[in-house]
């Protein structure tokens, strides 16, 4: 079987770089240890090898489709729901009282990395089912939990999140779906929801939609949004007036159904209020933050699979000759494998730097999440702040630079990369959605600069700077790392200068100006955060090379140090171009009412 | 009809910025003047509106396909060949003695911009037919010209270029297709050619393939390659043993047939030698340089169409509120059009900066081409050098940054951008091939740094620096431009420092090291060349604003100056990151025989 991810790298990150073992001392995770986690990962890998990876190409070639009110999905999806339910994967994060495994978030992310590298079309179905069940267990009544959650975690009913409406798009302020009180927690639901992932398919016999709607008379805007459980069929088996109005045919992730749902066309759709009225957005965002990490992981994993596919091609394809060895046009020499061409190596190494760096960022985010949720009181707040800071970055960097990584992967194959027989073109299409899902890059960037940087008087950023300094200090033990420490330090100065320019605008209430280059700030900040990940990996690799500790061979650790250097040479300089853009005093993208100069 | 390009911008470039009128004084072009060129462009626009643009989406949705030895193409292709032949478009560049219009290359590029913005799947069919006919008229015998060229220019027979073979890919050194002498200029041809664009379809009843092959006993490598005319049917109507062995289904440009041809399976394939034996590669490259400009134009045009599609969406879609006006979540305000959001404007303006800058670069390249071919003896050599320098850049910049421009266009539409109902996802797929066609970005970059920079002791670069200085001097008349002059000047210093580091490596014969970051050098150099284009456009716009000359209104010229500033703020800083990468002394991408660290 073709490689699509590296278990060695994943375990290196978990056990050597980020010390996932530390969280097993938390009472929630006391049943886990290194060995049991590795067994869990290996089991997931076996499942991925057998039931996920073999279907990735077919799911693209035979996409889901809509016909006469119903969405038809790939037959394998049924097996995934069944196995996912029976073997506890869907409920892996859940409390044992709900039948879950209480798997740490960090480990769950690692498992999803394996599954999504194997097949990025499938995990969303399970992930959304778990996510919506989790909203019910977190905020719903005991009755709702008992009625819906067991069948969801068993993989019998699919779950979805219904936020977007045609007229509102990303602007939840403008949600119009209505909820009219009936009795108790029951409401009559009416409205249209679009872009609903996993909203209809053949693999489960019921759907449990978590729907944002506005109770009659609720305040306007986001303050008047409530959350409802709206099943397609009620638990007594009667049809609940939820119509699949159509599907969205997409450029990529064509095995992952995206549908348009219509609630209450015949006035017969009942929804059950989750928690309190008008708290819907708050509840949804508890889930949304996790979903953003999952999207980041999906992007990182798709790019990982693309990296391994292009690496394999480069190792097998002879073409041309090395420039140094008598010229690349010398017919007297046998052609070399293309992996020996500097430009091909550059494209492969940059991919490696992006995908392995992304994965490290996501694992670190998982650790913050575990401590923020289940850590002792004295560490919770710090970890919460770090998680909040990391979330938009961990969603955006793998999506944006992962897209570029796949682009390099495709380029490695030349003309074949563009051909449908090879999978690179599919990954190129699949990954493109990631910078749109769950809040576009523009929205994540507003969140980072507009909310996460200023929150708690810049507490999160201070904590991160402390973390980076810590790594720089351990790196300074090794002469080899001195130039890279200097390099990263000068990037830190650049971002400080940028903030010294931007924050006074925020103070002065000039918010549009403050935020107009938020996306460039995101690019800058995320590149620094990945440099920090690489420095961290390189330091651990160096330690293990010197001590002989660590689970991997010398070449493995040398490769990490080499890839850190690749990152610092080829990727990190992006920071300076972002710096120049933001420090440029021209204000060019804010509407000037006088003239319309875009044409 | 939706806009897909701007005639105003195209005419601004031709008549105001690059003064295409100057070449009408060349004897070859004496029948042209400004009015006749404008009529030609307007006629092309009418044709594009009627027969090209309405089919772009359908050609993707009903792609060409292969069945039982035959490729089936979209019915509209037949009309395009017919009109293209009857109205002289296929032969527009040709000498009047061959029935051509003797259209200047610059004007031809402009016409192709119109056609390819309307539909990037079609022009290649006509362009390759013209290109292969041009090889025959340039180097073939009178008999060959008479036998094949008239039907090609009439759109009755399609022409192709057959270079690539399965085992060789981009390495023409390793071509194996054989040619055994029969009599006179006749040879028996045997071999496989892949990725043949337009190599089979339903629109013409014969195909004239221009095939690179090796005459028995010829020297190894590129010195032993000859060029042959190999028709599918000989002019007496007998079948010439050219089999369509299959097609390549692709991610994009799905209306443009890409096929696998097998020559002489039944030992009955006759080819006619073009020109002299063993000169095939030289002949082919005369054509290839033009083809590279055409690919650049195809990329620039696809990105242009994407820009206009996303601009139209942004002008029509209400969503959210401006940040400044009481907050983006204020439900008491009506949603604004998304074109009013700073981040959306940023994405639109960057697209505009890339696509309009690319077009200017291509028009300037066309001027160099016209002077290099038909100019007086005293200007030919300078223009030849500038053309040689510009060609890899004009092919690569629009392909690489055009790809990013389309990416922004898709992002402007959010989730809809990913959906098949909207055309952005198609342009995103279509443009991806451009950095692979006719020599990948890696190959163009080797050509730029390894051949074009050193040629004639750096003559081309010196000439370019002179051109840039000229524009900076005229810009310095205006205070408004002072900061941008300073900005560009500092980029010029950066590229000088880079060359001062790299050229000694070339002198010392350390070619692999010299060229290992050629692609980064390409990124750097091309961004500077586009900055020069923008400075040139801005200066002309400023002049016209002050004098009241020029064909466009005030807003048009203000928009050019504004977009120049956008380019300088958001795009030009890439130069510094490239500078840092190349100046970094780590050598990381050249194979170290000791270890294999890519895994």
| Class derived from helix and strand content of chain A | alpha+beta
- Cα end-to-end separation of chain A: 51 Å
Helix content of chain A: 40-55%
Order of strands in the sheet with most strands of chain A: 4-5-10-7-6
Say how many strands of chain A there are: 10
Shape category of chain A: globular
Average pLDDT number of chain A? 96
- The Rg value of chain A, from CA coordinates, equals 25 Å
Largest interface: A-B, 105 and 105 residues
The oligomeric status of these chains comes to homodimer
Low-confidence stretches of chain A: none
Helices and strands of chain A, in order, run as HHHEEHHHHEEEEEEEEHHHHHHHHHHH
Number of helices of chain A: 18
| Beta-strand content estimate of chain A | 5-15%
Give the biggest sheet of chain A: 5 strands, mixed, barrel
């Amino acid at each position: 079987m073709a490689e699509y991810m590296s278990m060695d790298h994943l375990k290196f990150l978990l056990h050597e770089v980020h010390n996932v073992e530390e969280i097993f001392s938390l009472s929630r995770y006391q049943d886990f240890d290194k060995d049991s986690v590795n067994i869990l990962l290996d089991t997931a890998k076996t499942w991925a090898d057998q039931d996920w990876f073999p279907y990735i190409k077919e799911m693209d070639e035979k996409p889901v489709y809509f016909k006469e009110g119903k969405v038809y999905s790939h037959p394998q999806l049924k097996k995934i729901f069944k196995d996912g339910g029976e073997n506890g994967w869907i409920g892996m994060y859940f409390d044992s009282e709900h039948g879950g495994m209480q798997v740490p978030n960090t480990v769950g992310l690692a498992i999803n990395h394996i599954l999504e590298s194997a097949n990025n079309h499938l995990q969303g179905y399970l992930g959304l089912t778990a996510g919506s069940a989790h909203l019910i267990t977190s905020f719903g009544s005991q009755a709702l939990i008992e009625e819906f959650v067991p069948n969801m975690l068993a993989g019998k009913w699919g779950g979805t999140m219904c936020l977007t409406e045609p007229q509102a798009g990303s602007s939840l302020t403008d949600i119009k779906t209505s909820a009219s009180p009936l009795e108790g927690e029951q409401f009559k639901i009416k409205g249209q929801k679009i872009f609903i992932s996993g909203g209809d398919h053949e693999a489960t016999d019921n759907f449990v939609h978590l729907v944002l709607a506005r109770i009659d008379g609720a305040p306007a805007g986001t303050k008047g949004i409530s959350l409802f459980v709206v099943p397609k069929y009620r638990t007594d088996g009667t049809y609940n007036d939820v119509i699949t109005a159509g599907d969205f045919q997409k450029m990529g992730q064509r095995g992952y159904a995206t549908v348009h749902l219509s609630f209450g066309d015949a006035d017969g759709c009942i929804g059950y209020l989750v928690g309190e009225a008008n708290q819907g957005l708050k509840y949804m965002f508890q889930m949304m933050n996790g979903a953003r990490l999952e999207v980041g992981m999906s992007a990182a994993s798709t790019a990982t699979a693309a990296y391994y596919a292009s690496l394999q091609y480069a190792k097998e394809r002879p073409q041309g000759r090395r420039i140094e060895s008598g010229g690349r046009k010398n017919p007297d020499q046998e052609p070399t494998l293309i992996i020996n061409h500097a430009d091909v190596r550059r494209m492969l190494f940059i991919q490696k730097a992006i995908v392995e760096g992304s994965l490290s960022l996501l694992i670190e985010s998982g650790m913050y999440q575990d401590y923020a949720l289940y850590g002792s009181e004295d560490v919770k707040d710090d970890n919460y702040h770090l998680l909040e800071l990391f979330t938009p970055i961990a969603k955006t960097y793998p999506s944006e630079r992962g897209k570029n990584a796949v682009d390099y992967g495709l380029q490695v194959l030349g003309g074949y990369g563009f051909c449908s027989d090879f999978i690179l073109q599919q990954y190129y299409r699949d990954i493109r959605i990631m910078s749109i899902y769950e809040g576009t890059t523009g929205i994540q960037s507003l969140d980072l600069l507009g909310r996460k940087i200023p929150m708690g008087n810049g507490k999160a950023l201070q904590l991160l700077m402390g973390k980076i300094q810590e790594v720089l200090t351990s790196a300074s033990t090794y002469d080899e790392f001195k130039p890279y420490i200097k390099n990263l330090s000068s990037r830190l100065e650049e971002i400080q200068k940028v903030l010294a320019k931007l924050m006074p605008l925020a103070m002065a209430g000039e918010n549009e100006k403050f935020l107009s280059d938020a996306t460039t700030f995101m690019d800058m900040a995320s590149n620094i955060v990945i440099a920090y990940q690489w420095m961290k990996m390189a330091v651990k690799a160096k330690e293990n090379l010197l001590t002989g500790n660590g689970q991997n061979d010398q070449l493995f650790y040398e490769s990490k140090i080499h890839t850190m250097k690749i990152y610092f040479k080829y990727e990190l300089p992006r920071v300076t171009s972002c710096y120049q853009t933001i420090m440029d005093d021209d204000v060019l993208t804010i509407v000037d009412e006088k003239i319309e100069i875009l044409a």
